[in-house]
Amino acid sequence: MDVQPSTAFQPTTAGRLRLRNRIVMSPMTRSRAFGTRATDDMAVYYAQRAGAGLIVTEGIQPSPIGQGYPDTPGLHSAEQVAAWRRVTDAVHDAGGSIVAQLMHTGRIGHPSTTEAAGHGPLTPVGPSAVQAGGQVFTPTGPQRNVVPRALTEDEIASTIQDFATAARHAIDAGFDGVEIHGANGYLLHQFLSTNANRRTDRWGGSPQNRTRLTLDVVAAVVDAIGADRTGLRLSPANGLGDTVEAGHVETYTTLVRELGRFDLAYLHLVEAGDPGLTPVLRGLWPGVLMLNPATPEPQDHPGRLALVDQGAADLISFGRLFIANPDLVDRLATGAELALPDMSKAYGGDHRGYTDYPTLAHSPAAA
Ligand SMILES: Cc1cc2nc3c(=O)[nH]c(=O)nc-3n(C[C@H](O)[C@H](O)[C@H](O)COP(=O)(O)O)c2cc1C
Known about the structure:
- The protein has 367 residues and is of the alpha/beta class.
- The protein has helices spanning 40-48, 78-93, 111-116, 153-172, 187-192, 207-210, 212-225, 248-259, 277-284, 306-309, 320-324, 328-334, and strands at residues 12-14, 17-19, 23-25, 54-60, 98-102, 125-126, 135-138, 141-144, 149-150, 177-182, 230-234, 266-270, 289-292, 315-318.
- The strands form four sheets. An eight-stranded parallel barrel has the order 3-4-5-10-11-12-13-14. The protein has a two-stranded antiparallel ribbon with strand order 1-2. The chain has a two-stranded parallel ribbon with strand order 6-9.
- The chain is globular, with a radius of gyration of 19 Å.
- Flavin mononucleotide is lined by residues 26-29, 58-59, 101, 103, 181, 183-184, 233, 270, 292, 301, 318-320, 346.
């Protein structure tokens, strides 16, 4: 089989991060933590995927109230930091790089989830007391999202500090950096939106006000661990979590212009909502652009690598293919067949559908 000549296979840097190639494992919640702590299975799972230029972990809650799903890991206690250390050591021993995705799910969540995690039944928080349509997964299965409590000014300040503290914890745990989750309908995206955010104070209304929380969280994390190991994920107009963004072009051009001053390690764009905006933001963003392109079917994904050669992005992230192909980079490099994930095992459960996907060398066909 021919080796593809794509520049995606060449090493590069993103701020302080050193990437063995430009293919990134996209963040994926797998709900397999034990009591909000990373497990040995998680260390195996991530180490198996260390061939990626960079691994972005599953969403990690920076605080108990930031947890939106059952069995997701945190970075707000000493025990969680110690547990993550085993994961980062395993990835580094395998030659990989790994950043922690800091995810506060905001109004997406349920009191029964925080209760099961040992923090009591907490009402989710958001910019305003506006319930998200749809359901959220809970320890007892899908339930309707509840009406969140609007964050007070003081709580916004402490939420920003929670992100900064979690970023410091990430470094203590051996991560190479953090990715701030500003996408997919969670807290920061809720503030960016025009439906979840009905505030009339300095956190709502104009694009300047709606982008303020994202920018303040970025500033606090940069202050805590340095811009050169801080990334940010955005998903303009992707509608997840019942998010509506009227005038999203102005929101994101305003935001990306402002972000330019931070010299972040990278900006990670989820393209699904408005692919036409990607080249516009690419033009406005002076730094490394990581793209999760809008190619809905996993079997179409190998074509994504051409985007690096074309200069549309510097790094390309893959989600679902990394679930089923621990050696995805090798498979892409050799044009080998790609396995498709069993999505019924995406969230929760044991090692099945998690650490038991074979590499090419160990696949039944190779045996
Ligand atoms: C099982 C699963 C869990 C996910 N969890 C997260 C998450 O925790 N944080 C996040 O930013 N995106 C999450 N995503 C979105 C992925 O990072 C990615 O953007 C999406 O799967 C599209 O990329 P793909 O077509 O390569 O799969 C998740 C996706 C899947 C399939």
